[in-house]
Design goal:
This protein is an alpha/beta fold. The protein has one domain: Rossmann fold, CATH 3.40.50.1010. A five-stranded parallel sheet has the order 3-2-1-4-5, with helices on both faces.
């Protein structure tokens, strides 16, 4: 069993941050191998369904749109078709949770909306490459843990 599979129990719902999705879609980042394992083995199999914020969808569409419109369509298809991956809307409950996170923990609005999406969905883990989330959101560990992929990559 991999370290990633050891840290995430079967059935636990996950929030995938933009940084994790970018590592998966790009494939050339230091944490890409872990992001690929996470999505292709844990999420796609249904072992650990995952939620992504529409803010993450927006953020991960920008680079492909600038570089190659066909890649933009590929990323959209990824969000539409990837098994057990739900792109969750930003609704009133998510916005209210994000405002609370922004005030309580000083998160930037995009990060607050992304984290709030996961908290509103009842995820067990907020999975990210942003180490600042681990310290800032530590008081929320009874609601959801922060799992930093870079920490599992030995970095």
């Amino acid at each position: 069993m991999s370290l990633l599979a050891e840290r995430i129990a079967p059935g636990e719902l996950l929030l995938l941050d933009s940084s994790v999705l970018a590592a998966y879609l790009d494939g050339g980042e230091r944490t890409s191998a872990l992001a690929i394992e996470l999505l292709d083995q844990l999420v796609a199999s249904g072992r650990n369904p995952a939620v992504v914020s529409m803010v993450s969808v927006l953020e991960t569409l920008i680079r492909p749109l600038r570089r190659l419109p066909a890649a933009h369509a590929t990323v959209l298809a990824f969000y539409r078709d990837f098994p057990h991956l739900i792109a969750a809307p930003v609704d009133l409950d998510v916005a209210a949770e994000a405002a609370t996170l922004r005030v309580a923990f000083g998160l930037a609005a995009p990060d607050a909306l992304i984290a709030a999406t996961g908290l509103a969905a009842g995820v067990a883990h907020l999975v990210t490459n942003d180490r600042a989330w681990a310290s800032r959101l530590a008081p929320l560990r009874d609601r959801a843990g922060v799992l930093v992929l870079g920490d599992l990559a030995g970095g």
